[in-house]
Amino acid sequence: MLREGSKDAFRILYDRYGMKIHRFALSYLKSDYDAEELVQDVFLKLWIKRDFLNVSGNIRAYLYKVAVNSIYDFIRKKNLELAFQEFANGQPDDNDSTWDEVVYNDLAAQLNQLMAEMPEQRRKIFKLSKEKGLSNDEIAESLGLSKRTVENQIYRATAFLKDKLKRNSVLSLLFFYLFC
User: Fold this and answer.
1) What local confidence, expressed as pLDDT, does residue 133 receive?
2) Structural domains present in the chain
3) 41: exposed, middle or buried (C-beta count within 10 Å: 0-12, 13-18, 19+)?
């Protein structure tokens, strides 16, 4: 019935599993507010994906799998935000240097993956501008292009990355802090 959009079926599932997932989330997140947010997120995902649910499957297992993934994402996001704040404030914690390195490498890998999706020339121009610090005139001269073409390609690269990164606020903050 949930697949057909039954609010009663949804309410029954929420009443049956909501508090259990809340306690489960609270054991990891240590914040009642965050656990409540996570429960809402889990059930929102259930409602959104209701058309694709396997009715014969174990709904309890599905809900807990979504909860575990959401907890992981939540903790990862919080750690990324803390690392970014430390980076932006210039106050890295020496005790967390390994974690900071992991976070940095993760962000760099995501950014590199997105840059690999760009056309080769656009990627090359963007790297020359943002990584090497060359001016548009220097890039145009070294690649035998017009300055306008270089400007256009940098604009398109930045627009592409903005669009792709807006789903990940921490990565987009880091991107804009470093490149814009």
Assistant:
1) 84
2) 1-91 (1.10.1740.10), 96-180 (1.10.10.10)
3) middle
Output the furthest CA–CA distance in the chain (Å, rounded): 67
Q: What pTM was computed for the model?
A: 0.48
Phi/psi region, residue 90 (left: phi>0; alpha: psi -120 to 50; beta: rest), is left
DSSP assignments along 89-149, one per residue: HT---GGGHHHHHHHHHHHHHHHHHHHHTS-HHHHHHHHHHHTS---HHHHHHHHT--HHH
Q: Are 25 and 38 in contact (CB under 8 A)?
A: yes
Region 10-31: mean pLDDT is: 91
Confidence of residue 35 (pLDDT cuts 50, 70, 90): very high
Contacting residues for 135 by C-beta, under 8 A, at least 6 apart = none
8 Å CB contact between 132 and 43: no
